[in-house]
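for the writeup, i need someone to sanity check this before i put it in the appendix. the sequnce is what the collaborator sent (i think, or maybe the updated version? ugh). structure was predicted straight from it, no edits. if anything looks off just tell me and ill rerun, i have time this weekend
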Amino acid sequence: MFKVIRKRDGREVPFDETKITDAIFKAARAVGGEDRQTAMELTIEVLKMLKKKYNGQVFGVEDVQDVVEKVLIEAGHARTAKAYILYRDKRTRIREAKGDLMDAVEEILAETNRENANVGNSPSAKMLQIASAASKKYYLTRLLDEDFSNAHMRGDIHIHDLDWYAKTLNCLQLPLDRLLTEGFNTGHGYIRPPKRPTSATALAAIILQSSQNDMFGGQSFPFFDRQMAPFVEDADESETFQAMEALVYNLNSMHSRAGSQVPFSSINLGTDTSEAGRKVTRNLLLAYEAGLGRGENPIFPNIIFRVQKGVNFEPGDPNYDLFQLAIRVASKRLNPSFAFMDSSFNRPYGDQVAYMGCRSRVMANRRGPEVTPGRGNLSFTTINLPRLGIRAERNLKRFYGLLSEVMDLAIRQLYHRFRVQARLKVKDMPFVMGQGIYLGSEGLKDDDCIEPAIVNGTLAMGFIGLAEALVALTGRHHGQSEESQAIGQEIVAFMRRRIDEACEEYDLNYTLLATPAEGLSGRFVYLDRREFGIIPGVTDREYYTNSFHIPVYYPISSFEKISLEGPYHKYCNAGHISYVEMASPPVHNPEAVEAIIRHMAASDMGYAAINFPVDFCTSCNLMGVINENNCPRCGSAAIRRVRRITGYLSTVDRFNDSKVAELNDRLPHSLS
């Protein structure tokens, strides 16, 4: 009856009516049918309708499927029709996923993928990115519940590190002292405890690298000064400095994850007042200040100086000199950032709180001891606040209704991911779980599931674009209006209350995160612009503002910005950070930096840093702010530009387009 049919790719191929019969019979069997004869009779009706509708014209596969659905429904085979429609929809999603995957692979091979500024473009990195793209498509189409995958693809939520959904966990605070004292095994034999500081820091780098290979997020030492102190007690300053210099070099050159990136490392220090602990802090800061081999600014480790009254914050405190040194180094190198042990939410834990990665914080624990070492975040999912603000049409009651709905969905999705992660076995994470590093993993066997350990971890729900959401709701963001500031605080407080309720409902450590949006900041605004158009102050830029931050383009003083952002830190118990932007390295104005840090502490911040440009000519080693494309000294175009991206440092050439747009919009904050 028909000679050819047009495929989806435009090719015309011989028509085969048995494929229609097979598809109908398959749908019938899905609902308990076993009569192929009926499928053949229905095929005849399909052919009649095709002849009547197309009258000799060539039709396509989709046209045939439309007619099959119509015939099944009109013939009274409603259940078979439903099964056929569901199967057709599933095949469509699989085809679309394959097409999206091929597009993603082409983008990776063209070296344009910049979702994570810490991932390079080496052959192994590209291989990892291709595997990542395939994993994302698989999880969205085959593993996730449809309401979760649809919410992610629409842009209501963003499931971070989706490619690792069923493979591993996010980040971890490592018990360095125990590993160095007892020794460990990375898979090819036992490593005995070190005796000298250089060996100890070399093994510290290997520990970070080995843990990174088991996980997808940041790796951190929570009390590095205290943990490393025993290994420098009888070492002089020179030997200790060389050991710390070697650590900085290693953490900027030792690649993990199949060679795609260096470990995403953080080191907390500053509160150990023993002479050995002070020696560790002093020499790591000095080694970081010296830079890499030609004076380049190190990218890693992320050094976090823990500030505490009575320890290092006031003149006369035993480590006050180290606080002054930390300010000096930060004024030149961007690091260290500063964690405040005396904030209202950190103070109850003494000096036990540590931060890692972009801003992660792990402390409270419903299922075990409230300690930092051996614990981390399991996964996090971010809510698109600007989209809710747009949809609410300036109606706050409606906004809270929409927010409740999407929070409930995100909480359920995080629990789903927890259940998937809980089925992983110890042998899937041979270092982190096999060596008993994760709290609760001690004594587990290779084939045991890791649930007894990961109940000590956290599930984080994050948010992005509070500023744009407030513009959508009130016409002004929280830097422009006291009313908007009050509404902003109530929104975030509302989110924290719902998260605390989730802790009770699931008996798990749900937490609220001030999201570090790298690739996400551009993805959400792209999707919202496509749906809602360009809305001034909301979707008119290439990115959404991070978490609760004042927009980077808004002119404001350092102290006012700190005062406005400070109140949000206490709600975000999964992590938070605030920045002050400066026009150039304040190497000759440490007093201003100290005043800023003291105001951060007074404003109840938990974690904060100062930002400024750090440019370095790799031809003549000139360092400073180089505004031109070429070095003013030697004329070279080989300029290495280091900036803070979302809580960690990176070179600008690794920024994605949305982050480049945000970087270009950044205004320095005045000191008045």
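The chain has 21 helices and 21 strands. The chain has a mean pLDDT of 92.
thx in advance!!
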